[in-house]
Each structure stands twice: as structure tokens, then as C-alpha cells.
TrEMBL record:
Keywords: Signal. It holds the Pfam family Glyco_hydro_114. Residues 53-269 form the Glycoside-hydrolase family GH114 TIM-barrel domain. This is Endo alpha-1,4 polygalactosaminidase. It comes from Streptomyces fulvorobeus. Residues 1-23 form the signal peptide.
Length: 279
């Protein structure tokens, strides 16, 4: 996670190329990998590359922004707000934190102290011990069920790269893969599309399990090409920058097929889009 702020891990995503040496006798043809959380064919919304979007997680929801996709806070917005956006023919993504505890959420008291780790850089938030799926799976299932009940089309699960951060737990890449696939499966079971938030290093393994990606600051850190597997699979990459002007990244991200915005760290209603022809 770079995670809605400049303080988190600056680990660059460096693709690792594996060279496999095979025997002279050819084996059976490789079979395409089936996602662990594969939904029923054609049953979910699947946004395509380059679609415009609005991302608002704070302040009074502004439904006047001319964008076909809205990504909004799942706790702070209800079925009425989702229905209003649907009447305008917009798809709506439910933002949830799935990898960090937030003391200000109504279900905060249901998380035992044993799964709460170090602070993640935001006041009132702490990393979760994602190895403890016995505790976290029912809690996250309830959150995702809430999104479905309110009528959302998809989920944006945040804090999905705890293993790269000082969480207070000895988390591994395998722990993260298992947990992220669990979240994708839960979303699909509730009939919702799901996006992979940041976690660039694991995109090659996780792309088949997710329906789109959400990324922060890939242009600032020179990481945008790591998102190519999503675009090549016909899936949207919803991308936001905080510190760069659109003129500094739009040409590149348009070439790569990303849906780019400039936002402020508070993620209010304000946004700056790429100029016509560069979006």
C-alpha cells in the first residue's frame, strides 16, 4: 500500500522474470490459470481500460461530476446515494479498508486486540494480522455484504499490501496472496466486482482473481508499466496522482490505457482530469 498518503512504503514494483528449463521431451500444453475466486461468467460488471472515474472518500458526496464510475466510502454512503448515482447510469464502487483496522468504523469493537498491529500512518488506523482469517473472514464478509445490500456494483478493498509495510506482524508474500484472494472470493460470492488496490509486486499472480485495479502514484514512482497485465486482460486501472500535474503523466498513462486523475490527499470531490485526447 502507498495508501492515501506519502508516508507508506516506497518499494518499487520490480517484475521478476523466471526462466524455466524444461526437459527435451515436450510435456502437455500449459493450461490457463483459473482464478481462485472466479465468478460466474458474465455475471459481474467488468470495467474496461480507459473509462473515466471519480474518487471521493471525504466531504459531502458531489453527484454532479460527469463520470461514469464513482468510487465512494461504503460506510458513509447509503443505498439512497448509490441509487441516485445509478439513476444517472453510473457504476458505483464501495471503498472499504480490508487490511487495516479503523477505530471510527461502527464495527471497530468486533476486532480483537490480538489482530491489531502497528499504525499504518493514518490517525486511528492499525494494520491487521491478515494471517488470522478465522477472525477476519467473517468481519470482512459482513462488510462486503453491507456493500451488496446497499446496491454497490464493486468493492475497492484498501490496505492490501501489509506484507510490504511495518505492520507489527511477520507477514509474508504468501500470506498476502492468500488474504487478497480471500477478499476477492468474498466479493464475488456477494455478486460484486473487486479491484486490486496497489500491491504492484503481486499483480502477475493476482490479476486473474480481480476485475480491475486501483493505483495511487504509479507515475510519481515510475511504476505504471507494472499495471499492464490488467489492461492486457481488458480490465480498467483506476489511477490517481497527488503531487504531479496531469501534463506530467497523462501522455504516458493514456498510452498504457490507465484511467488517470489528479486528486488531493483528502480525496474530496475535487479532481483534475487529463486534457482531451490524453485521458
Amino acid at each position: 500500500m502507498r495508501g492515501r498518503g506519502p508516508w507508506a512504503s516506497l518499494s518499487a514494483a520490480v517484475p521478476i522474470l523466471l526462466v524455466v528449463v524444461t526437459a527435451c521431451t515436450p510435456g502437455p500444453p500449459a493450461q490457463p490459470r483459473t482464478p481462485a475466486s472466479a465468478p460466474a461468467s458474465g455475471s459481474l460488471w467488468r470495467p474496461g481500460p480507459g473509462i473515466d472515474w471519480q474518487w471521493q472518500l471525504s466531504g459531502r458526496l458531489d453527484t454532479s461530476v460527469d463520470a461514469p464510475v464513482y468510487d465512494i466510502d461504503g460506510f458513509e454512503n447509503g443505498a439512497a446515494q448509490v441509487a441516485e448515482l445509478h439513476r444517472e447510469d453510473r457504476k458505483v464502487i464501495c471503498y472499504l479498508s480490508t487490511g487495516a483496522w479503523e477505530e471510527f468504523r461502527p464495527d471497530a469493537g468486533k476486532f480483537p486486540a490480538s489482530v491489531l498491529g502497528e499504525g499504518n500512518g493514518w490517525e486511528g488506523e492499525r494494520w491487521l494480522d491478515i494471517r488470522r482469517t478465522d477472525v477476519l473472514e467473517p468481519l470482512m464478509d459482513a462488510r462486503i455484504a453491507m456493500c451488496a445490500k446497499k446496491g454497490f456494483d464493486a468493492v475497492e478493498p484498501d490496505n492490501m499490501d501489509a506484507y510490504l509495510n511495518p505492520s507489527g506482524f511477520p507477514l509474508t508474500a504468501d500470506d498476502q496472496l492468500r488474504y487478497n484472494r480471500l477478499i476477492a472470493r468474498l466479493a464475488h460470492e456477494h455478486g460484486l466486482a473487486v479491484g486490486l488496490k496497489n500491491d504492484l509486486d503481486q499483480i502477475p499472480e493476482l490479476e486473474p482473481d480481480f476485475d480491475f485495479a486501483v493505483n495511487e502514484q504509479c507515475a510519481q514512482y515510475g511504476e505504471c508499466e507494472a499495471l499492464t497485465p490488467f489492461v492486457e486482460a481488458g480490465k480498467a486501472v483506476f489511477h490517481a496522482e497527488y503531487e504531479l500535474e496531469p501534463a506530467g503523466y497523462c501522455a504516458q498513462t493514456r498510452r498504457l490505457g490507465l484511467s488517470s486523475l489528479r486528486k488531493e490527499y483528502a480525496l474530496g470531490a475535487w479532481r483534475a482530469t487529463c486534457p482531451a485526447g490524453d485521458r
